[in-house]
Amino acid sequence: MATIINSARDAAQALEAASDVLGAGFPVAIPTETVYGLAADATSAQAVSRIYECKGRPRFNPLIAHMADLAMAERHVVFDPVSRTLAEHFWPGPLTLILPLKTDSDVHALCTAGLDTLGVRVPQGFAGSLIAHFKKPLAAPSANTSGAISPTTAAHVEADLGDKLTLILDGGACAVGLESTILKVEDGVIHLLRPGGLDVAEIEAATGLTAQRPASAGAIIEAPGMLASHYAPVARVRLNAADVRADEALIRFGGTPLPGESAARLVLDLSPTGNLREAAANLFGYMKRADASGARAIAFGPIPAHGLGEAIRDRLERASAPRPSSAPRS
Ligand code: TXA
Ligand code: MG
């Protein structure tokens, strides 16, 4: 079983222990402001391959390289002016930029899955300190079995991957609760590859540019990990529910009861006051609770489309997508 160290309370001990495990080429589960990451030395083939192995992840799925700061990122990728503006504005924070990889970068090809671009992000808080201490970029996907819901607490990580890991750092519940927003700038045009924890409206305000969204959800495949069916709980997921059916758990938004909910297995409200940031932070944890209630299906009440609602609805659409019958879920 994994050792768990509280990185908020025992930061020095957590830094040392994590650096030891990372230096030996093994992954460590770390808190970030978005979701918990399964981090390993991005320059080591062995370390990165252990991430794929631990998650049961398809091989050709590139990983985000997490950097201590912009200066570290600049040693590995080439910034265009718009991407630089975005990095200066939003790092550290829930923003990943896909940029051309420098030929002399020592980030391993297993991390980029052989692409000539690299996804880079500077995380907030303890994760940033750990990377600065380790002095190398950390490859880190979300710390969950491939296809399952992303973890937003150390307990989620322990329940899913505890027997495959030696060390989990516990930094408390993730403040954002949704994965980073992923952008790729080409010829001065911002392309949104994955809506996430940074609101697109903030990106547009900071640059004065309009972000281009893919024509359809299926087109998001440009970020190769954006499988249509993802973030899947075991229970079926029903969106935009106007009422609650027998044997369902209800997850609603905005404090308004739905017809039939007194018979629900469980009723949770993502944000009774209608705050989308609070809703994002609660989303994955509530999905896990609803799943654990044993309900046949999870009904979701309507979620507004603006602000972080876009990323929340994206995750819910993936959670409700038809699944291959053999898809591993946990
Ligand atoms: O908030 C986050 O982004 C979290 C935390 C741990 O930082 N990480 C995360 O990683 O969500 P992951 O591996 O679950 O999702 C990364 C996404 C995948 O869809 C992957 O295909 C895409 O980023 N990606 C990575 N490198 C890429 C590249 N060079 N080009 C296009 N897409 C890329
Ligand atoms: Mg993930």
Report what the structure shows.
This protein is α/β, with parallel strands linked by helices and 330 residues long. The chain is built from 10 helices and 14 strands. The longest helix has 17 residues, at 276-292. Strand 2 and strand 3 form a beta hairpin. The strands form 3 sheets. The protein has an 8-stranded mixed sheet with strand order 2-3-7-4-6-5-9-10, with helices on both faces. Strands 11-14-12-13 form a 4-stranded parallel sheet, with helices on one face. Helix 1 (11-23) crosses helix 6 (126-134). Residues 217-221 and 326-330 have low confidence and may be disordered. The protein has 2 domains: 3-207, DHBP synthase (Alpha-Beta Complex), CATH 3.90.870.10; 236-319, Threonylcarbamoyl-AMP synthase, C-terminal domain (Rossmann fold). Threonylcarbamoyladenylate is lined by residues 32, 34-35, 37, 61-64, 96, 98, 112, 115, 117-119, 121, 123, 140-142, 179-180, 182, 193, 223-226.
Helix content: 25-40%
First-residue to last-residue Cα separation: 18 Å
Output the helix-strand order: EHEEHEHHEHEHEHEEEHEEEHEH
Q: What is the CATH architecture descriptor of the largest domain? A: Alpha-Beta Complex
Number of strands: 14
Q: Give unreliable regions as ranges.
A: 217-221, 326-330
Shape: globular
What would CATH call the class of the largest domain? Alpha Beta
**Within the largest sheet, what's the order of strands?**
2-3-7-4-6-5-9-10
Largest sheet at a glance?
A: 8 strands, mixed
Strand content: 15-25%
* Name of the CATH homologous superfamily of the largest domain: DHBP synthase
Radius of gyration: 19 Å
Secondary-structure class: alpha/beta
Q: What is the overall number of helices?
A: 10
